[in-house]
Amino acid sequence: MELDRAEDALLSYGHAALLKPDLAEAHFNRANAAARLGRQQDALEGYDRTLVLKPGFAEAHHARANALEKLGRLSEALDGFSRAAALKPALAEAHNNKGNVLCRLGRHAEAVESYTRAVRARPGYALAWNNLGSALRHLGRLEEALESCDRAIALAPAIAAAHYNRGNVLKALERLPESIESYDRAIALAPEFADAHKNRATTTLLMGDFERGWERYERRNARVSIPPNSGSIWTGEENLDGKSLLIWAEQGFGDTFQFCRYASLLADRGGRVTLAVQDPLVAILKCLEPAVAVTGLGNAPAGFDCCISLMSIPHALRTCSHNIPAAIPYLRADPDRTRQWRDRIGTQGFKIGICWQGAAGGEVDIGRSFPVRHFETLTDIPGLRLISLQKNAGVEQLRELPAGMNVETFGDTLDPGPEAFVDTAAIMENLDLVITSDTAAAHLAGALGRPAWVALSRVPDWRWLLDRSDSPWYPTMRLFRQSRSGDWPEVFAAIKASLLESLSTNWTGR
Question: In the sheet that 350-355 helps form, which strands lie side by side, from edge to edge?
Answer without folding.
Answer: 384-388, 350-355, 433-436, 452-456, 474-481, 470-471
